[in-house]
Amino acid sequence: MTQRHTDDLTHMQAALALARRGLGSTWPNPSVGCVIVNHGRVVGRGVTSVGGRPHAEPNALAMAGDQARGATAYVTLEPCCHWGQSPPCTDALIQAGIARVVVAARDPDKRVDSQGFARLRQAGVVVEEGLMAEEAHDILAGFFQRTTAGRPLVTLKLATTLDGKIATHAGESQWITGPEARRMSHAIRARHDAVMVGVGTVMADDPDLTCRIPGYDRRPVVRIVADSHLRTPLTKRLVSTAHETPTWMLIRSGSDATRRRAFEDLGVRVIELPPSPAGVDLTAGLQALGEAGITRLMVEGGGQIAAALLRAGLVDRLAWFHAPSTMGGDGWPGVQAFGLEKLAQMPRFKRHRVTPLGDDLLTEFKRHE
Questions:
Q1: Residue 221: how many CB atoms within 10 A of its CB?
Q2: Are 201 and 231 in contact (CB under 8 A)?
């Protein structure tokens, strides 16, 4: 391996670390990292700003100033080449005098999709593609999912006993996992644009669904409730705090108009979906969330919504916290029955990472393609 390739890997790793830092705060835009290096010295660093603008490249160029001329820019996603609410990043790189651009992943957006590379090359900039592409795709998975499939990446989070239970038969559930696991759950929540639960969880637990991490002050996670008939009481915390933290409701069309207005008056955004025998049409719901800009969605419960998503093939990742305890058959399962009759029908996942958290264990999975 040459010294130049080693340096390229080092700087791209730094750009990827910047991109990871922005997850959950840049939607509808992707979180991108950019590092600018001139004669072996880092002169600029940038990540997509909270809310998605400015992009990573102009942020890094602003830090680099005149030292960007003749430098190399390491970017985790192909620079945009179209006018939106901000100028093209390709033009900013060219005007700054960047001589070489090393990019991890191509942008599948039809407005870009290799056209950014072409624009840079036409201006005489050396472009190299695909360095650490797999790592970049992992970070950009939500943006890619929304761009290509129209819906956000879905992470289903479960916190269960070893035998898959989330509550006793009487409904007691706090707490199955320990404090380390609960802190990690909040950290994962912070890396998503939105968190969703079913109305049953709201009725049983009255959750906040906020990121309670010391020092956390980024864009608040959008809280979403799948509630086909608006059964959620107006006194629940998600509703009473909707003016402070964004709260959305997925409902069936034809729900009571007066009750809907009551929620909207309290600051809740109501998203109406086509009627479905299952209550909320989650496929249509995810498409609506994609249209609203959500790229990464964390689903936290309960068992019915977990089953519905798995049955529909809508779960892309699993974050499964296991506590070293058992509850038995009379406990509430983390995933309710969803009509499985044959092994071939099972949703399958591959293990991605295992993390010990005190006495608990977090196992992360990705959908088996």
A1: 24
A2: no
The answer, yes or no, to whether residue 165 has pLDDT greater than 90, is no
Q: Which stretch of DSSP H or E encloses residue 366?
A: strand 360-367
- C-beta neighbour count of 220 within 10 angstroms: 16
CA distance 79 to 274: 38
Read off the pLDDT of each residue in 12-37 and give the average, rounded to a whole number.
96
Type of residue at 250? L
Q: According to the model, what pLDDT value does residue 217 have?
A: 67
| Six token digits for residue 303 | 């068992």
DSSP 276: B
| % pLDDT > 70, the chain | 98
- Three-state secondary structure of 68-79: HCCCEEEEEECC
d(CA 321, CA 196): 17
Q: Is the pLDDT of residue 1 over 70?
A: no
The tokens for 72 are: 């190399």
Q: Which residues contact 312 (CB under 8 A, 6 or more apart)?
A: 282, 283
Non-local (6+) Cβ contacts of 254 within 8 A are 275
Ranges 74-83, 135-144, 300-309: which has the least confidence: 300-309
Give catalytic status of residue 57 as yes or no.
yes
Question: Choosing from 57, 264, 291, 364, which is the catalytic residue?
Answer: 57
DSSP, collapsed to helix, strand or coil, labels residue 267 as: coil
H or E segment at 319?
strand 317-322
d(CA 282, CA 269): 17
Per residue in 323-335, pLDDT tens?
A: 999 888 888 888 8
Distance CA 155, CA 300 (A): 9
Average pLDDT, the chain: 92
